[in-house]
Amino acid sequence: MIGKDVARSPYYITTAIPYVNARPHIGHALEFVLTDAVARWRRLRGDEVRFQTGSDENSLKNVQAAEREGIPTQALVDRNAGLYYALRDSLNLSFDDFIRTSVEPRHVDGVKKLWLACERSGDVTKRAYRGLYCVGCEQFYAEDELVDGLCPDHLIRLEIVEEENYFFRLSRYADRLIDAIDSNRLRIVPQTRKNEVLSFIRRGLVDFSISRSKARAHGWGIPVPGDPDQVMYVWFDALGNYITALDYANESELFQRYWSGNPNRVHVIGKGIVRFHAVYWPAMLLSAGVPLPTTIFVHGYVTAEGVKISKSLGNVVDPVDLAQRYGTDALRYYLLREIRSTDDGDFALERFIRAYNADLADQLGNLLNRVVSMVGRYYGGVVPAPQGVPSAPLAPRAGVEGTQGTHLMDAALGLHRRVDEAMNRFAPHDALAAIWDAIGAANKYVDDTEPWALAKRRRTDPLANARLSTVLYNLVETLRLVAHYSSPYIPAAAESILRQLGLPSGAREGWSDWGRYPAGTAVQPGSVLFPKFVVQ
Ligand SMILES: [Zn+2]
Question: Which of 134, 194, 277, 429 is catalytic?
Fold first, then answer.
């Protein structure tokens, strides 16, 4: 719980920074919304959160995309980085920082410092190298990793590249990486990904190239310190963003607060880039003498209508378009509830509309509407105080709705434990299932206690009158808690619920206790929370 005297715990969470060679698709939306939900939950429970994202701009892919369009690379990345930044509005993201790797001195200075620190440890050496290189992946492959002689990911023929490059001595760090991961000092979630990483390391680590000739990089990228003919391999520079954004260049207070002195350094990434984050990146940090991330959460991929998302297939589902057409909260809800975060999931329009109508419109929207209009009808729009023993508003003496009220209160108060436990596992689908259990319990409570019948009898039956006020208070209080707990996932709807209950937005100290709703407050009936969609 939030307490004045308790120092708030720092919590740093990042998304991967996407290549900006094309518009964002639904897969990006999944990662951003998932990370945003964790960040918002952590703020709500009282942590001091810093949520960071950005754009990976020094990739050869961006050079190629700009060449196809006939515009300068900088113009392409400027334009496309803007499209990713704009997701802040379309997806209602709460990130605190957005780092751009091609233009920001804090990044360039920071990765140069990181490079030099690895060099001082003796882990950076120049060697002649000849290998098979995939431009799509921007990485070298060994013969035995190929599929029919082609890139396993892109199924294209690889280029034979021969040049002098700098190499990072990854092989030196196998034991220390295994130790960090095995002991959960570097926690990899879920367990299946942890096992994959450990077995990859145990098969033996090979040093990897961390620079390219300036010519092959088309002059695009961050120059290697002291060797202007070479630019840094884009992954070396991109991974650095997690600390350069915190001013690693100067190791200022920001860096100490959120990295070196922070027990929560969390990366959220997709399953395709685990090796870079769980092997290369921690090895670079070990070499540079910088603490490792503490947690890496790996999510699955999204397909669209059952088909893998790819630009060539032309099935890139546009999250901006979906959010405009159906609402940001509706899209966020689907991504967080209908897709299990550790598994692959699918975006299907029919299923999206079905979930929207059933969960958001029929259950949550309807509950709010019922409760606010009953407060209007029976109490002139002012929420009554519960009657009964004041310190125990749900005491059995309140009669039949006492037991039912206890069930409802248990469902609402049980949310804290269930949501926190789920979010510690990065499982918003389970957190939302818990919240919808409470919403279901509240709807059932209305049906079981029949406030309309109590209202009919209340002039002649004082007990019915007392019960009615208690029932409505309990429902309003449950909605208040539901609004707070659902705010990390559907923030705009949560605010609208609070507004309709006559409450200010945001959570105050003690928000998670029962009985915090101030009786005597006037409700503010508003528009329908989630108007139903008709399935064509
Ligand atoms: Zn490839």
Answer: 134
**Count, residues in the chain:** 536
> Residue 257: beta bridge partners?
none
Q: How many Å apart are CA 392 and CA 385, to the nearest integer?
A: 12
- Please name the amino acid found at residue 376: G
Surrounding ion ligand 1 within 5 Å at CB are: 134, 136-137, 151, 153-154
Element (H, E) at 98: strand 97-100
Q: What is the distance between the terminal CA atoms of the chain, rounded to a whole angstrom? A: 46
List of residues 6+ apart from 406 with CB closer than 8 A: 394
Q: Estimate to the nearest angstrom the gap between the alpha carbon of 154 and the chain centroid.
A: 27
- Residues 39-83 pLDDT 10s: 999 999 999 999 999 999 999 889 989 999 999 999 999 999 999
DSSP 129-157: EEEEEETTTTEEE-GGG-BTTB-TTT--B
Annotation says 118 is catalytic: no
For every residue of 165-227, DSSP letters joined together read EEEE-GGGGHHHHHHHHHTTSSEEESHHHHHHHHHHHHT----EE-EEETTTTTT-SPEETTE
pTM greater than the 0.70 cutoff: yes
Give 144 Cα–ligand 1 centroid separation in angstroms: 14
**Distance (Å, whole) CA 131 – CA 141:** 7
Q: Which two tokens stand for residue 226?
A: 């002291």
